[in-house]
Amino acid sequence: MRKVIDIPEELAAAQEKFNKEAGRAFIAALPDLAAAFLDRWELRVTGTPMHGVSALVLPVARADGTPAVLKLQIRDHESEGEPVALRLWDGDGAVRLLDHDEPTGTMLLERLDATRMLSRLEDVHEAVLVVARLLAHLHTTPAPAGMRRLGDIARDMLERTPATLERVPDPAARRLVADCAAAVREVADEPGDRLLHWDLHYENVLAADRAPWLAIDPKPLAGDPGFDLWPALDNRFDADDVLWRFDAMTDVLGLDRARARAWTYGRLLQNCLWETEDGRPLNDTDLEIARRLRDRPA
């Protein structure tokens, strides 16, 4: 008899909000999809379902008793690269991929300790260094052919910037966004070729038995490591700590600071474009990060 999986209401609401018809179809298919992979991979549910905005994660045990998690998510341009990246990283700095179904994007992953997120580490400076050390592992891997490319993203952002600037009413904020775009334009022809995580915020870092901390949930792309720094500047934001965090991360990663700053501006520009195009005000934290980097003493 197949186990009935309860779909969290918050996941259904998020899919309705962000993916509309495709999200509704994904949610409707989830119970049967989960049941099918529990059978196919001989898994037994051992805990309460977890979820984010786009995925349902079931704690499971394999036939031999090994703990794992079954991740079911809507397949899109961001998530389709996740199993590719995890397979290439092969557990070095990231959760290990145990099995994968390409047509649906369903993954079987090693079980980490979901109760011990990096966001719970009291020492913020140590948390920043943890992220930097993980990125140092992940960035040693060159991105494979077919991965989303930062160069394409940068060109698209720069094409959209003029229309966005017209929608920013505050002159100082408009100047700051324009400065971010100008910096990206200077490095856009050399976008890099490393395999980036893109979303390594503190809740995407979990403790494990085989390593103190491991990354989860990448939205990978090929590009410059500087494009991966922004989450650690934003998480548990402290304006007076921005420069320390930026310098510490670039030191650990061995990055040229001018280039890393330009690609960090790229993340801030990306956020500004999304916010403006969605009719939302620019994020004050993003603007302050950009301002601190731009106006730092020589």
Question: What would your notes on this structure say?
Answer:
- The chain is an alpha+beta fold and 298 residues long.
- The protein contains nine helices and eleven strands.
- It has helices spanning 9-40, 82-89, 124-138, 150-166, 171-187, 230-234, 242-253, 257-277, 284-294, and strands spanning 44-45, 50-51, 55-61, 67-73, 97-101, 106-110, 113-117, 194-196, 205-207, 214-215, 221-223.
- The strands form three sheets. Strands 1, 2, 3, 4, 5 and 6 form a six-stranded antiparallel beta sheet that branches. The chain has a three-stranded antiparallel beta sheet with strand order 7-9-10, with no helix packed on it.
- Helix 5 (171-187) crosses helix 8.
- The N and C termini lie far apart (68 Å).
- The model has no long low-confidence stretch (mean pLDDT 95).
Salient structural properties:
alpha+beta; Aminoglycoside 3'-phosphotransferase, Chain: A, domain 2; 2 domains; three-stranded antiparallel β-sheet; 46% helix; globular; NH2Glyco/OHUrea_AB-resist_kin; phosphotransferase activity, alcohol group as acceptor; Kinase-like_dom_sf; kinase activity
CATH topology category name of the largest domain = Aminoglycoside 3'-phosphotransferase, Chain: A, domain 2
pLDDT < 50 stretches: none
Structural class designation: alpha+beta
Radius of gyration computed on alpha carbons: 20 Å
Strand content: 5-15%
What share of residues is helical? 40-55%
CATH architecture of the largest domain: Alpha-Beta Complex
Shape: globular
